[in-house]
Amino acid sequence: MFIGNNLIELDVVDSTNNYAANLLVQTKLVSGTAIMTHFQTGGRGQRGSDWISEPGKNLLFSIVLNGHFINSENYFLLSKAVAVGINEALEDVSGKTGFVKWPNDIYIDQKKIGGILIENQWKGSLLEVAIVGIGINVNQVNFDDLQGVTSLSLLGSKNYDLKEVMAKVFEKIEFYYNLLKRGDINQINHIYFNHLMFSNEWKTYDSNNGRIEGKIIEVKENGLLVLKLRNKELMTFEFKELSFIL
Amino acid sequence: MYMDLNEIQELIKFVAKAGVNEVEIEQKDFKLVIKSDYLAKKKSNFKEEPTIVQQAIPMASMPSQAMPVEQPISAPAKVEAKPAPADSEEDKYITIKAQMIGTFYRAPSPDKPPYVEVGDIIKEGENICVIEAMKLFNDIESEVSGKIIKVLVDDASPVEFDQPLFLVDPS
Q1: Residue A135 has pLDDT above 60, yes or no
Q2: What ipTM did this prediction achieve?
Q3: What is the pTM of this model?
Q4: C-alpha–C-alpha distance, residues A113 and A155, integer Å
C-alpha cells in the first residue's frame, strides 16, 4: 500500500485540500500522501457550496497522487477510479449497494453519503499532481434541514471506527488507481458504468431544454454524459447541464 | 466530337423545331443533353388549344440545365485582402489557451483575490487560473513568463477547449 503510508493527521484545518496544496508549494510529497482532519473550517463542495460536518464524526481527507499518465483529454478517468474505489469501500463497510451519481458523488439508498473534490495541477497537458479531497459521512446522524443526506451510522445504526473505514477506502482507491496506471482504461470505464446511478435505465431528467426522458449509455473519459433519447437521438451533457430527479 | 457554341445553338434550334422534348448525344468524352420543359408544356397546351400557331422557341426560354456545356466558372467576385493588424504590437504577444472545457475562475476560491491582474509579471509554472470541469478543479499554470496584457475571459464564465484566456507579453 502506498496510499496513506504517509499520513498527516490534523485536529483542525481550513481544508485538507488547501493544506496539501500549500505543502506542495513548499516541498515535494510522496505520491499517496494523505492528510486527514477531524474538523474543517473551510471545507468545500463544488465551488461555493460548503460541506457541513460535525467535529470528529466524519472522514475528511485528501490524497496526493501522481498523475503523469493522465492527460487533459482523459483526466476524468482518475475521478472515475476514485469514485468507484470509495463506492466499493462503502459497500463493503455498510453491506449495502451504493451508486456513483454522475459525475462523482456517492449515494446509498438515494441519499448522498460522500463527495469528492479533485484539484489537478497541470504541467502543460500532463497532470503533475492530483489532490483528491474526499468527504464521507460516517458517524454524524443529525443533518438539521439538509435533505437527501445519509451516513454510515444512519444506515447501520452503529458507530464506525473512522480510521478503519479510511483504510478500506485507501485500499480500494489504490486498486483502481493502479488499474488506471497500468492502462486498463476499458475496465475503469466499464466498472464506473456498472456503479453509475441510473445507467442504462429510462429516467426523466431536467435539462436546459426542460424535462427530458433518456437513458445514460456512456460517460466519456472527459466526463461528458451521453444520454439516449426515446427517438434514438444521442445528447451529450456537461456537468450542470443535466440534473437528476431522485 | 467537339461542338462549338454556334453548332450547339443550331442543334437546339433544330431540336425545338423537331418538337422533341429531349435529345442526348454521347460519345467517348463528350456528352450533350438538351431537355425542353418549355416544349413539353407547349405541347400539352397544343392539345387544349390546337389553334395556336407554333412559335420559334426563344433561346432564353431554354432551361439552363438543358445545356450541360462546360462554362468558365466565374471567379469569386472579390478576394478581400485582410487588413493589416491595426496594432502590430499584438504579434509579439503570446496567448495562453484553455486546455479543457469548463468554467474559468480567476481566483483559487471565491473569497480570495485573483491569481493575476493585468500588468502583473508572471513566471513560467505560476498558477494563473482555475478551470472547473466535472467537479474537478484544474489549476492552470502558465507555460510562459511575461507580463499580463489582457484577461480575455470574464470570471466564472464557461470556456471551450483552446479558447484564448490571457494575452502575455514575453519580452
Answers
A1: yes
A2: 0.80
A3: 0.74
A4: 10
Q: Is A211 left (phi over 0), alpha (psi -120 to 50) or beta?
A: beta
Least confidently predicted of A91-105, B88-102, B131-145 = B88-102
CATH T-level assignment (fold) for domain A203-244? SH3 type barrels. (2.30.30)
- Residue to mutate among A238, A241, A243, with most B CBs inside 10 A, is A238
Return the number of other C-beta atoms located less than 10 Å from residue A206's C-beta.
13
Residues of chain B contacting residue A79, judged by C-beta atoms under 8 Å apart: 134-136
CA distance A40 to A16: 8
Q: What are the extents of the domains in chain A?
A: 7-194, 203-244
With CA atoms as reference, the chain A residue closest to B156 would be: A47
Average pLDDT, chain A: 93
> What does the block give as the cell for B168?
502575455
Which one-letter DSSP state was computed for residue A201?
Answer: S
Determine the distance in angstroms separating the CA of B83 from the nearest CA of chain A, rounded to an integer.
Answer: 34
* Option in A75, A103, A124 nearest B135 (CB): A103
Classified as helix, coil or strand, B146 is strand
Cα A151 from Cα A139, distance rounded (Å): 7
Using an 8 Å CB-CB cutoff, list chain A residues near B132. Answer: 46-47
Same fold, A7-194 and A203-244: no
Class of domain A7-194: alpha beta
| Tens digits of residue pLDDT in A213-232 | 999 999 999 999 999 999 99
When CB atoms are compared, the residue of A120, A124, A239 closest to B139 is: A120
